[in-house]
Amino acid sequence: MSTADTLLDVRGLRVDIPTPNGMLHAVRGIDFDLKRGETLCLVGESGCGKSLTAMALMGLLPRKALRTADRLEFQGNDILSLPEKAFNRLRGNRMAMIFQEPMTSLNPALTIGQQLVDVHRQHRNVSTKEARERALFLFEKIGVSAPVERLKQYPHELSGGLRQRMMIAMALMCGPQLLLADEPTTALDVTIQAELLRVLRNLQEEFGMGMILITHDLGVVSRMADKVAVMYAGEIVERGDVYQVFNRPSHPYTRGLLECLPIPGRHKHMAHLPSIPGVVPSLIGDLTGCAFRERCQYAEDRCGEADIDWRQLPDGQGYQCILPASSDGVASEVSR
Amino acid sequence: MYRYILRRSVSGLLLILAVSLATFFLMFAGGDPATRMAGESGSVADIIRIREAYGFDRPIIMQYLSWLGGFLTGDLGRSLYFDLPVSSILVERMFTTMRLGACAILLAVAIGVPLGVAAGCHPNTKIDRFALLFAVVGQAMPTFWFALLLVIAFSVTFPILPSSGLDSWKHYIMPMVVLSYFAAPAIMRLTRSGMIGVLDTDYIRTARAMGIVPRKVLMKYALRNALIPVVSLAAAQFGYMLAGSVVVESVFAIHGAGRLAWESILRSDLPVIQALVLCFSLFYIVLTFLADVVNAWLDPRMRIS
Ligand SMILES: Nc1ncnc2c1ncn2[C@@H]1O[C@H](COP(=O)(O)OP(=O)(O)OP(=O)(O)O)[C@@H](O)[C@H]1O
Ligand code: SF4
Ligand SMILES: [Mg+2]
Description:
The complex is a heterodimer of chains A (about 325) and B (about 300).
Chain A: E1 6-19, E2 22-35, E3 39-43, H1 50-58, E4 66-68, E5 71-74, E6 77-78, H2 84-90, E7 95-98, H3 112-123, H4 128-142, H5 147-152, H6 160-172, E8 178-182, H7 190-207, E9 210-214, H8 218-224, E10 227-232, E11 235-241, H9 242-247, H10 252-259, E12 311-312, E13 318-319
Parallel strand pairs in A: 3-9, 3-10, 7-8, 8-9
Antiparallel strand pairs in A: 1-2, 1-4, 1-5, 5-6, 10-11, 11-13, 12-13
Helix pairs in contact in A: 3-4, 3-6, 4-6, 6-7
Chain B: H1 2-26, H2 33-38, H3 44-54, H4 60-72, H5 86-121, H6 126-140, H7 143-157, H8 169-199, H9 202-209, H10 214-243, H11 245-251, H12 257-266, H13 270-298
Bound molecules: adenosine-5'-triphosphate (ATP), iron/sulfur cluster and magnesium ion.
Magnesium ion (MG) binds next to helix 1 of chain A.
């Protein structure tokens, strides 16, 4: 399945964290791949393992967490068994990541310039001057006002939106092939969100990066994604091209998520926004059968008896449920 | 940064002024100084003579100004006990204590910070346990006892170090070790907890996500932030060390300011006490000023407030 175009090939990725109450299986064997220049959105409720998936790809899991996989390849090279030192040469260089919290993700004691220059000089044999020029070049692309002054400023002197632009610039200093963005706009207000998403998409097209965008906002998915993977309790329960998943959501959880999407005219107030009733099961210990069954209106006995098979549709969409693929889809009302 | 230093200097000077006022009024704390100086057997005539000789009959503000003026020109009055200018006794003693304190605090930082960093980077490992043991022992052991143990070990059992005075660098070793072992545990603990806290922050995660090599993450991205509280602590410890030097100076028979203070209190030698209090306070103010400047250099957020 992997071709020359494949940037990232992930099979059976697991993340297990030992806790006092037992082993917490935060990511339970997920598969996906990403092609050059493609955007994959990872969606799902809080705690379903999105961030840990990204951290596992970056080799930045908490120290006690265990990462295993059947295959974990970046640009055709195995990165699962890569020694830490070699992995460090990829991070910030060929793969980079931006985080949700712009207020705390930059070092308060160093100027923006120092931090950006450090990243560039870590991976490229360039002078400080050249690194600064690279930063200014990116500032222009990202739409940063007064770029030269910014280099001399400290993070606390900048607004949240600007700080996140600095994070983006930092991630792009070395021109990575893969960009991981973990809820990059969630902490910002709506107008800045839209602006930053536009910036990200433009940069991605210009540099031809593959991007994994983590979000729980389906509105963001519809604007950004080529492909979607819906996560629930550490598993991917549905995956496919964005129009397939939006128009033909086949897993009841995906349908639930789409029904919760605010649609102009349908929901007058945010307070009336429906949400999926029930709570996510504990991730500690083994789960047999479908993790969603406590909350699923279609649940049957066999849903809890054995693990549910993955159903692959001929056009590439797939999902993990006993139900046949839906033909209508709630989401036909959702406009892209 | 320069603006910050300027502003901080002004507030430091105001503080010095306030402290000098408070010290000045110390003189009157025990009632009329002339009566006290005349003693139990002093007659009324004696009291009046003393009052005129020392200028206690002038308005209080004039007395303060002339006292302050004297202080600024190095005239700290006369010791009642030695009948010598206070400055001739004090300066030497002050330098002795400060020199010892400075050596000790440097040693405490040189031990406490690296140990704290090592422990903070590897919590709950052997090195961390060792650091904790080091700290607990240091904090539990009374200073005089540790000093005596050292004397027994290195002056009596193995006579390799001199036990009294400060005549050569060898004399400095034991008092310095005792004083620094008093300060190092707190410095170690604060460095350790600072390091643990900082290594867990988002900005360290960012640095690692950008592939910055671990040594640089530690030394440039983490340590700087972790040391911010340690600077103030070390300055405060230095201050305590001077104030608390009386024990070490007694054990090692060092003629320092701590011992002078103790003896002067016993002798009610008011001018000396006054001068010592003022010197210690001044030194403390200068220390905190320096600590604040270092902190502002480490942490740009402090420069605004
Ligand atoms: N360091 C850790 N130790 C123990 N459990 C953890 C740790 N980090 C994450 N978890 C658990 O792993 C699960 C997945 O966490 P993760 O951060 O990946 O969720 P997420 O999908 O990113 O959620 P959110 O939308 O809130 O960011 C959660 O149930 C969380 O409690
Ligand atoms: S497998 Fe059963 S419980 Fe799970 S989503 Fe499908 S129908 Fe619902
Ligand atoms: Mg997350």
